[in-house]
Every structure is written in C-alpha cells, then in structure tokens.
Records
---
Amino acid sequence: MKKLVAIVVLALSLSACNAGSKEHVCTFEDQSRGLKSKLVHTHSGDVVKGFKETIVFSYEQYGISEEHKEAFQQQIKETFNPLYGETNVTYQDEKDTLTVIVSIVYDKETIKKLQESGVVTAGNISHISLKESIKELEANGYNCGK
C-alpha cells in the first residue's frame, strides 16, 4: 500500500510540473537541402520550460550515398551531442532520412551551459524568454505561427 501511495504522489508531482504549461510550435523547411524541423516549446507565459525539436535530414538531398551514411551520422552526432548532451539527443536512421530528436527541460544549469555554448541567447541566466526565442527563430527562417 505504501508503494502505491508513493507512486500516486510521484505521478501527481510530475503532472503538477506541467500544470499550466502550454506549447508553441515553430517549423523550418529548406527543400533545397532536404531539411525539415519542428520545434515545440513548452512554456508558461513568457518563460520557456523546455523544448523538443525533431530535425529530419534527407540523405538524397544532402548527397549522402549509402556508403557514406555512417560517416554523415557520426558527423551529426559529433555536432549535436556536445551542444545538447548525449542524454538529450536521440537518432533514428531510416532508409532515406536521419531524424534527430533533441529534448531539453530547462533548469538553471542547463540554461547556463546552453548560453555559454551560444546555443541559447534569448532570456537571461534564470529563464529563457519565449518571445525572444520566437524572434530569433523567425529571423533564422523558422515559421512560428502566432
């Protein structure tokens, strides 16, 4: 019984973490390079709580032949893992595409690391601003519908 109560309390506390949170979606597509991205910010007001970005690379449009897929995948991993941390990035290799999924929940330490690396510049040391993030993304070609 104590175990069941502990599980219920844990579930309630986890769901409370996202209480009042909303999502805002931004997309990016570069057909000439075969790149698609969907970025979902989880936020409360102007404070971004985290994000999940799904990026799809087309091997054909990147000019990646079958024998060079592994080298391309390694190059992508060497780019994303140091920026976001290995535990925050997953990779899905399909026949024609490589999908990279970056999923981050912001805390002060994560914000500090991402700001130091230049990955995140919107907001300050204590939080990431949704409005500033959207402005930067749109300046870089993302479509962040209102």
Note: The chain has four helices and six strands.
---
Amino acid sequence: MNNLEFQAMIYVYVWLQGNEAINTNLTRFVVDISALLDKKKIG
C-alpha cells in the first residue's frame, strides 16, 4: 500500500463516520490526491 492509497482510505473512513469537522480538514487531502493523480497522468 502506498501513501496515496493510505490517505484515501483514511478519508473514506472518516467520511463514513459523518464527522463534518474532520471532513472539512481532510478536504485538503482530497485536493492533494487529485493533484497527484493529475501529475501521474501528465508525467
């Protein structure tokens, strides 16, 4: 498992818990994941 998958799993877990406060903070993780995926496509 790489760090990208780990962060995604954490986000999904927290989202399923319905913790909006933490979800707001983890939104940055989602943006980072999207940026990394875009870099992989371009690279």
Note: The radius of gyration is 11 Å.
